[in-house]
Amino acid sequence: MGKSSQWVVGLNPVASALEHDAEHVLEVLLEAGGRNPRIVEIEQQARRRDIEVRRVPAQALDGVAGGLRHQGAAARYAAARTWDEHELPALIEAAGGRALVLVLDGVQDPHNLGACLRSAAAAGATAVVIPKDKAVQLNATVRKTSAGAADTLPVFSVTNLSRTLRDLQKAGVWIHGLAGEAEASLYALDLKGNVALVMGSEGEGLRRLTRENCDSLVKIPMPGGFESLNVSVATGIVLFEAVRQRSR
């Protein structure tokens, strides 16, 4: 397998790749003798699109899955489109004053990144921004966890996150960072316009330069006494607060 292709494993990710990005699916591997109706459906779906399907032993699927649970299905496809950060302003403009950008400052766990992408797609986010350094990138685990969101959502991996935040501000986007020690509440924000919501890493939260480039820092009120939430849970909360406000 070359650098220009990668494996996605699991029934839902493979089905999603066929549904949303079939033109980039290069081949599908299915477990020989597998009778799961979903496997049969995936095979039929792939063949209708003239995509090569091979029935292989479970050991072959184990080999491409890299330790992930493949459920008898894997797909090799051309790497997802790489979004250039210079394309971000055009997406903001096209959103017509209602851009919703999720910025993840150094998320390390691929399961967390995948879950954040899934929430962002469900919330109708315009784009997701992640740094290239000291953060997990779009690997097979992320794609599996995102349940197809990584295939359809514009994800920008940027060299300099602080510069990107400044560019967003120049494009008319308000930058709000989530920090547990902040005084202001998330629920006091106006999230109806062009907004970027910035989430920190699992261990350290927002980095200093990231904080300095935010227009405000807010927290999620937690009357139960906990100091913090898992980043993917917190991301879902803040995104759908924006959805709630925008649906009024």
Commentary on this structure:
- There is one protein chain.
- The chain has 248 residues and is an alpha/beta fold.
- It is built from ten helices and eleven strands.
- The strands form two sheets. It has a seven-stranded parallel beta sheet, with helices on both faces. A four-stranded mixed beta sheet has the order 1-4-2-3.
- β5, α5 and β6 form a beta-alpha-beta unit.
- The chain is elongated and about 60 Å long.
- 40% of the residues are buried.
- The mean pLDDT is 91.
SSE layout and pairings?
Elements: E1 5-9, H1 11-20, E2 25-31, H2 37-48, E3 52-56, H3 58-65, E4 73-78, H4 88-94, E5 100-105, H5 110-122, E6 127-131, H6 140-146, H7 149-152, E7 155-158, H8 161-170, E8 174-178, E9 184-185, E10 195-200, H9 208-212, E11 216-219, H10 231-246
Parallel strand pairs: 2-3, 5-6, 5-10, 6-7, 8-10, 8-11, 9-11
Antiparallel strand pairs: 1-4, 2-4
Question: How is this structure best summarized?
Answer:
By secondary structure, the chain is of the alpha/beta class. It has helices at 11-20, 37-48, 58-65, 88-94, 110-122, 140-146, 149-152, 161-170, 208-212, 231-246, and strands spanning 5-9, 25-31, 52-56, 73-78, 100-105, 127-131, 155-158, 174-178, 184-185, 195-200, 216-219. It is elongated.
Largest sheet: 7 strands, parallel
Give the topology string: H per helix, E per strand. Answer: EHEHEHEHEHEHHEHEEEHEH
- Parts with pLDDT < 50 across at least 5 consecutive residues: none
Radius of gyration: 19 Å
What kind of oligomer do you see? Answer: single chain
Apparent shape: elongated
